[in-house]
Amino acid sequence: MSSIKRLVLDLMKPNEIENVEFARTIAGMDGVDGVNASLLESDKKVQNLKLTIEGEAIDDGEITNTIENLGGTVHSVDEVACGDRLVEESPTHQD
After folding, report:
1. CATH code for the domain in which residue 26 is found
2. What is the phi/psi pair of residue 83, to 5°?
3. Where would a tag sit more exposed on the chain, N or C end, judged by fewer CB atoms within 10 A?
4. Which is it for the CA torsion 38, 21, 70, 80, positive or negative?
5. Residue closest to 72 by CA, chosen among 18, 30, 8
């Protein structure tokens, strides 16, 4: 089975947990080389984040468990890249 090289997640988290803590915790996991956390939306109690995770062998189940342990919830998996190398999206006529 091919390893996951990039995982892009849309998640909701409580405001009490800092975005930096989320990113650092995920970045410190085995198989993860880097994380980008982008704030999409914020209200009084929760924030919606886009997490872009890259690495040589990302364990999506462990990522989801860690997010849930931090009080977050994964809304959707918006992108997954697997294989020996990352393949960037190509524009299509629909774009």
Report:
1. 3.30.70.1340
2. 120, -165
3. N
4. positive
5. 18
Do you know the residue count of the chain?
Answer: 95
pLDDT tens for the 95 residues of the chain, in order: 789 999 999 999 999 989 999 899 999 999 999 999 999 999 999 999 999 999 999 999 999 999 999 999 999 999 999 998 888 888 888 87
Q: Is 71 left (phi over 0), alpha (psi -120 to 50) or beta?
A: left
Q: Measured between alpha carbons, how far is 18 from 49 in angstroms, rounded to an integer? A: 11
8 Å CB contact between 13 and 43? no
CB contact set of 39 (below 8 Å; sequence gap of 6+): 19, 47, 48, 49
Residue span of the structural domain in which 54 resides: 4-82
Domain count, the chain: 1
Q: What pTM did the predictor assign?
A: 0.90
Task: Tell me the one-letter amino acid at 46.
Answer: V
